[in-house]
Amino acid sequence: LVIQWREPEFYRIPVVYYVVRLATNPEMENARNVPTAATTQKQQEFRKTRLKIRGLRPNEEYYFQVGAVNQIGASDWSVPSAAMRTREAPPAQTTPPECMDTESFAMVMQWREP
């Protein structure tokens, strides 16, 4: 899922980096920060206004907020985005089947659901 936003008004002190968070509800309850780069140092240099979000669950709705940080401090979080849904996906892989019982011409197999 790729999100994009517009650069905010910065009143002659430019944005140093952006922070992003997500939640599964529009009230942003239990929101969690989204890494914008591999390291904290790189995250504090993230100036792009577009971000590919990875590690989301298939067929799930997400809401996002963005904040801007400059030399003076951090902005308030943006208004939450409209709901964005990830694509559907096939089910996860099952566990290998196990033989539970055998008869002359049959066997009982078992496996766990994904």
Explain the overall architecture.
The chain is mainly β and 114 residues long. 4% of the residues lie in helices and 32% in strands. The chain has one helix and eight strands; from the N terminus they run E-E-E-H-E-E-E-E-E. The strands form three sheets. It has a four-stranded antiparallel β-sheet, with no helix packed on it. Strands 1-4 form a two-stranded antiparallel ribbon. The longest helix is centred in the middle third of the chain and has 4 residues. It is elongated. The model has no long low-confidence stretch (mean pLDDT 94).
Residue runs with pLDDT of under 50 for 5 or more positions: none
Please give the largest β-sheet: 4 strands, antiparallel
Question: What structural category arises from helix and sheet content?
Answer: mainly beta
Q: What is the radius of gyration?
A: 22 Å
- In DSSP terms (H or I, runs of 4 or more residues), the helix count works out at 1
Shape: elongated
Helix content: under 10%
Count of beta strands: 8
Q: Numbering strands along the chain, what is their spatial order in the largest sheet?
A: 3-2-5-6
Mean pLDDT value: 94
Q: What share of residues are in beta strands?
A: 25-35%
Q: H/E order of the elements?
A: EEEHEEEEE
Span between termini:
24 Å
